[in-house]
Amino acid sequence: MLFPDRPVPRSSSINHAPDRVKEPALAERVERDFAAFVDDPLFPCIAGKGVLNRQNYSLGVYGTLGSADSAAFLARDLAAFTRERSGQNELTSCIAIFTEPLDATEDEFEAALWAQLQLLHERDDPAAGWDPRVSADPADPRFSFSLVGCAYFVVGLHPGSSRLARRFRWPTLVFNPHEQFERLRDRGQFEPLKEAIRARDTALQGSINPNLTDFGERSEAHQYSGRKTESGWRCPFNPKLR
């Protein structure tokens, strides 16, 4: 693990989820690990640090990334998060941490990530539709994942990531509501925040993430797993819109 293990007090904002994993002690350990990971001074995402410090997030611990069982619980939790946090002015995230697999390669993690998003999509409320502010086509430069009518930018973390900022010991998906980035743009705060995070990430890694682009330049699907996608890469996500 990149960042040192340090004891971190359990936050009351973390949703303990004993129904999602069989060992409550394991869920507690996973939650503490994530708090320590983000709280570490080397962690580059200052927006994520702010969300953690303000306790303005939801966190659930699940079983296997890419499984139907995990999708069933996560679809319910993410829908509840969407309803509860809709229109919130402060930055917020829904964090899904999985206890398996721990030994996936970058390609394997990417496949599991998209399998999980596909399963979530197939459990979505058809009446909600895709968020009209973004595209459902993963090849479209304006693509963003959507659930219950809310667009999300997804950040994948896992032990085998080549990007140090994404190298967390448990497979994780962080769902960030797209609308909060638009509010930051409207306030003139998005560009300074983006540049500060990219500078910290470059200082940590020694190079900027080659997948980084701004929304509308290239599909953000390239960024979700953290893997450097090759030329001609095609996203395996298949939207089934009614």
How would you explain this protein's 3D organization?
Strand 3 (145-147) and strand 4 (150-157) form a beta hairpin. Strands 1-2-5-4-3 form a 5-stranded mixed β-sheet, sandwiched between helices. The radius of gyration is 17 Å and the shape is globular. The chain contains 6 helices and 5 strands, in the order ααβαβαβββαα. With 242 residues, it is an alpha+beta fold. The N and C termini lie far apart (43 Å). It has one domain.
Provide a short characterization of the protein structure.
The protein has 242 residues and is α+β, with helices and mostly antiparallel strands. It has helices at residues 24-39, 46-53, 68-85, 106-122, 178-187, 190-205, and strands at 57-64, 93-100, 145-147, 150-157, 172-177.
**Helix tally?**
6
* Helix/sheet category: alpha+beta
Number of strands: 5
Fraction in beta strands: 5-15%
Q: What distance separates the N and C termini?
A: 43 Å
Low-confidence stretches: 1-19
> SSE order, as H and E?
HHEHEHEEEHH
* Arithmetic mean of pLDDT: 87
What is the share of helical residues? 25-40%
Largest sheet: 5 strands, mixed
Shape: globular
Number of domains: 1
Record the strand order, biggest sheet.
1-2-5-4-3
Rg over C-alpha atoms, rounded to the nearest angstrom: 17 Å
